[in-house]
Amino acid sequence: MRTVTTVPERLERAAAVARRFVEARLGEPLPPICIAVATRFQLARCAARTAAAVVGGRAPRLGQFLYGLCMWREARTGLACTLLAPAGVLVIVTRQAVGDPRLTDYLVHEFVHAVQAHRPGRREQMTERLRFDLGMAHLDEARQYGEFLRHEAEEGEAYRIQAEHAGLSPLIPTRRSA
Ligand SMILES: [Zn+2]
C-alpha cells in the first residue's frame, strides 16, 4: 500500500488490519490505495483537485469550489473519505480520526468503498457523477436516481461490514430455511 505523506505508524497498523478484514470479508482484492492525513480544509481542497484530475479536461473553478465545500461540510461528521484518484483510490483520513480509538473501524468502512469503486463499470459511473458534481455534464433524473440508489446501497454495505468489524453483527437476522 502506497502512502503519500509520512503516515503515522498507528495508521499503518490500522490500515493493515482493515485491509485483511475487508479482503477476507468481501473476497475481493483492494485496488491501489493512497492514504493521506489531512485537516478538514486540506481534505476539501484535495478532494476538489483529485476530482478535477479524475475527470480530465478543464473543470470549472466554481464547480471545484462547490464540490470542495460539500466535502468540507461532510467532514464535520465524517472522519474519513474515499475518492477516485487518477490511478486507484485515495483515502483521506482527518487528523482527528488518526487519534480515534475506532480508527480501524473507519478504515474498514473506507476500504469497502475502495473495493466498490473498482467493481466492473463502477469507476465509469462514478466519473460520470463527478462530471455532474463539478458542473461539467448533465445527468438526467433517471441516472441521478440510479446513482442515488447505488450510493445508498454501497453505504449500506460499508456500514454493515464496519459493524461486523466493531463486533455488532449480526445486525440483520438471516431468514431460516424451513
Ligand atoms: Zn461511506
Could you explain how this protein is built, in words?
With 178 residues, the chain is α/β, with parallel strands linked by helices. It has one domain (2-165). The protein is built from 7 helices and 4 strands. A 4-stranded mixed sheet has the order 1-2-4-3, with helices on both faces. β3 and β4 form a beta hairpin. The longest helix is centred in the last third of the chain and has 25 residues, at 141-165. The chain is globular and about 45 Å long. The mean pLDDT is 90. The structure holds zinc ion.
Task: Name a few traits of the molecule.
178 residues, alpha/beta, four-stranded mixed β-sheet, 7 helices, 4 strands, globular, binds zinc ion
Topology:
Layout: E1 2-3, H1 9-26, E2 33-38, H2 40-55, H3 61-74, E3 80-84, E4 89-94, H4 95-98, H5 103-117, H6 122-133, H7 141-165
Parallel strand pairs: 1-2, 2-4
Antiparallel strand pairs: 3-4
Helix pairs in contact: 1-5, 2-3, 2-6, 5-7
The protein binds zinc ion.
Beta-strand content estimate: 5-15%
User: Could you list the spans in which at least 5 consecutive residues all have pLDDT below 50?
Assistant: none
Structural classification: alpha/beta
Largest sheet: 4 strands, mixed
**What's the overall geometry?**
globular
Task: Give the SSE order as H and E letters.
Answer: EHEHHEEHHHH
Q: Which small-molecule species are bound to the chains here?
A: zinc ion
Number of strands: 4
Structural Rg: 17 Å
Number of helices: 7
Strand order, largest beta sheet: 1-2-4-3
Average pLDDT reading: 90
Helix content: 55-70%
Straight-line N-to-C gap: 46 Å
The tally of structural domains comes to: 1
